[in-house]
Amino acid sequence: MAAAYSQLIHRQVWLQQSDPEIRIHYVEAKPTSTHKGTILLIHGFPESSYQFRHVMGPLSSAGYRTIAPDYRGAGYSSRPVTGYTKKVLATDLHDLLTQHLSITDPVHVIGHDIGGMVAHAYAALFPEDVASLIWGECPLPGTTIYDDWKHTPALWHFNFHSVPDLPELLVTGHEKQYLKHFYDRLGQNPAAFTEADLDFYATLYSAPGAMRAGFNVYRTFEEDKVDNQGWLQEKGKVKVRAMILGGEQTLEALRSESMAKEVNETVVAGVVEGSGHWIAEENPQDFVKKVLGFIEG
Prior knowledge:
The chain is of the alpha/beta class. It is 42% helix and 18% strand. The protein has 13 helices and eight strands. The chain has helices at residues 56-61, 86-100, 114-125, 144-149, 156-162, 166-171, 175-186, 195-206, 210-219, 221-235, 256-263, 279-282, 284-295; strands spanning 9-16, 22-29, 37-42, 64-69, 107-112, 130-136, 242-247, 267-272. Strands 1-2-4-3-5-6-7-8 form an eight-stranded mixed sheet, with helices on both faces. Strand 7 (242-247), helix 11 and strand 8 form a beta-alpha-beta unit. Helix 2 packs across helix 3 and helix 7 crosses helix 8 (195-206). The longest helix has 15 residues, at 86-100. The two termini are 28 Å apart. The mean pLDDT is 95.
């Protein structure tokens, strides 16, 4: 018999109504059992809250109010011209939870890819509001691995996305092919992305301003580096208990734990078995297992 999961609810809130409009779309799954806490899921590029479609039900059925926003510029959220440092993206999500959803207890923050960078910023800025931190699948600006890798062929898109205007010109009209390159190249399970999934993501990123917003997330990496190093100098390492979580077959697998130890005081490493970069989609069952094992451990 199939498990009975909470229905996914789509909502949006206005963090700011004009100059510019900041509208955040989010998906929520309410717990189907005793409420144990809240989980915040932060997606990466080139994805949206949709990347957590396979794991929100199981996490909510385990007792957690599970919230997956589209950060500014992504998915169904608004796409302002500025505001793409991870400090700003994290502050948006903190405002969403505390001011609009009235969440007062510390939450479990989970970020993947760009979302991992946002999750780190969230924990650095608002440690008293974080119960635990899970992040990974990203070379965090300001760490050794970021400086070593940012100009390498493996991360060619870091340079490309940082060029003003040219990426938009070249990718417009070819969004599906461009996104599929990353899904194919970085994944280990080709079946994780169906044709319908590709069409969904391509539709989102073909919207006016969507690719620009996606590239702007990369164009702020050097500002993020300054922020991350500044927090480390001013506050020390993030003291929230943390796990660095990645795929078994991923580019950063060998160095991710040492990277996390540069910025986290207490950190363990977790591995999603048989997965490449897209851990919540390639092996959602093991993703849920590793997440619950850590936050309930």
